[in-house]
Amino acid sequence: xxxxxxxxxxxxxxxxxxxxxxxxxxxxxxxxxxxxxxxxxxxxxxxxxxxxxxxxxxxxxxxxxxxxxxxxxxxxxxxxxxxxxxxxxxxxxxxxxxxxxxxxxxxxxxxxxxxxxxxxxxxxxxxxxxxxxxxxxxxxxxxxxxxxxxxxxxxxxxxxxxxxxxxxxxxxxxxxxx
Length: 178
Hints:
With about 180 residues, this protein is an all-alpha fold. The protein is built from six helices and two strands; from the N terminus they run αββααααα. It has helices at about 5-30, 45-65, 65-75, 85-110, 130-155, 160-175, and strands at about 40, 40-45. A hairpin with a 2-residue loop joins β1 and β2 (about 40-45). α1 runs antiparallel to α2 (about 45-65) and α4 packs antiparallel against α5. The longest helix has 29 residues, at about 5-30. It is globular.
């Protein structure tokens, strides 16, 4: 296994942990009610910022890390791409589209999130024809769709994950024995 492959493995591991952090912070944010909410010494607005930062880090690093693959996978050719590549590309397009949806809907709910009690007129203010509730609904369902696509993505690459994990930890065990 090359050093580059090992680095990709560890970066992908960090990205997976980052994905778990995004899910965890979204559950914390959605479960937080009222301005006095504090968990682990952090208030709701701080959890929202952590949620945004982890999401931006995930998307940015993942795009940079896999840019070479993206260019090859989406390169226009007359030849039919292999079935596995077409399937991976379809999932990746779905992940990208949902990421854009989550980013846009997040931008519309962020300034008002947690600040709108029932009956607040801002709750019914429409942005591009959609109210806060509509954007929040889209963001919540988009997150669930994203989670499903990530599970499918991991499933498609599970063989690589398992074999790479075995090789890395077997190599480290051999190095420890020396």
